């Protein structure tokens, strides 16, 4: 649970630094379960998060990796997500880090409850709600 809150705080802080994010999270993470079987696999999550544009919006210089500066002040999360210890985060590392934070039972899938938790963070009033103007609202 600690990791979930640290990750949520990390992404909220990242989002605060992005005035106009090119993201499309209005549909929510529940829609990541594309085959409607009640779970989101890592592949479904990758697809959904990739389509959202969140990673790209955080990559300020658009070089395809997130540096610790672009990631923000949460070096503990950054280091934990940096699987190859390269000093930057690929989109795969970023997605897997977020996925892992919500996969509380470490099953390798996000079940309905885990998806609902993630969905709440991206819904209106959530930690990383993206409004209709593609502006991340961190004041919610």
Automatic annotation (TrEMBL):
Keyword Signal: yes
Signal peptide: 1-21
Keyword Cell wall biogenesis/degradation: no
PROSITE patterns in the record: EF_HAND_1, EF_HAND_2
Annotated keywords: Signal
Domain EF-hand, first and last residues per copy: 20-55
MF-aspect GO terms: calcium ion binding
Name recorded for this polypeptide: EF-hand domain-containing protein
Organism: Hasllibacter halocynthiae
């Amino acid at each position: 649970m600690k990791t979930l809150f640290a990750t949520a705080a990390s992404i909220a802080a990242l989002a605060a630094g992005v005035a106009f994010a090119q993201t499309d999270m209005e549909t929510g993470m529940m829609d990541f379960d594309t085959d409607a079987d009640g779970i989101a696999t890592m592949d479904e999550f990758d697809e959904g998060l990739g389509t959202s544009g969140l990673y790209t919006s955080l990559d300020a210089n658009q070089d395809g990796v997130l540096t610790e500066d672009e990631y923000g002040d949460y070096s503990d999360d950054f280091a934990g997500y940096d699987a190859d210890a390269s000093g930057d985060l690929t989109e795969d590392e970023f997605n897997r880090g977020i996925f892992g934070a919500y996969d509380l039972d470490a099953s390798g899938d996000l079940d309905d409850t885990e998806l609902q938790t993630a969905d709440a963070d991206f819904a209106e009033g959530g930690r990383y709600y993206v409004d209709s103007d593609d502006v991340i609202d961190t004041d919610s």
